[in-house]
Write a structure and sequence with these properties.
This protein has about 120 residues and is mainly beta. About 5% of the residues lie in helices and about 35% in strands. The chain has one helix and nine strands; from the N terminus they run αβββββββββ. Strands 3-2-1-4-7 form a five-stranded antiparallel sheet, with no helix packed on it. The chain has a two-stranded antiparallel ribbon with strand order 5-6.
């Protein structure tokens, strides 16, 4: 793999605007109107959210991530996709570089809702 060029520099203040939290993926469901999206129900400790992720074709069994803890961006504006509402974004790695994507996960279990940074 040839690493992609670095993106434009952002200020620390801009970076701090991102709210990245750990959450446990409770369920993974098919999104009928999409050939890419799966609907994740994610537990953030004090609430759950529906987060759409384009993992349907990335994994032989997208449901294999049920029960796993991962990192999510939770302060994005809600977005309507394929007739569903997404309330955040799964933070994973690899897709943009043509690699098999993998979840970004805490090194050890942390309370759901714990913030990165």
């Amino acid at each position: 793999m040839n690493p992609a060029p670095l993106k434009e520099t952002v200020s620390f203040e801009d970076f701090e605007k991102l709210d990245i939290r750990a959450g446990t993926i409770v369920s993974v469901e098919d999104v009928a109107k999409s050939n890419k999206l799966m609907k994740l129900t994610v537990d953030f400790g004090d609430h759950t959210r529906s987060i759409l992720a384009g993992i349907k074709q990335e994994r032989a069994n997208p449901r294999e991530i049920e029960g796993k803890q991962a990192l999510f961006v939770v302060n994005l504006a809600e977005r309507n996709m394929a007739g569903e509402v997404s309330q955040g974004m799964l933070f994973d790695m690899g897709y943009a570089d043509g690699l098999t994507p993998c979840l970004l996960v805490p090194e050890m279990p942390v309370p759901d809702g714990a913030r990165a940074g």
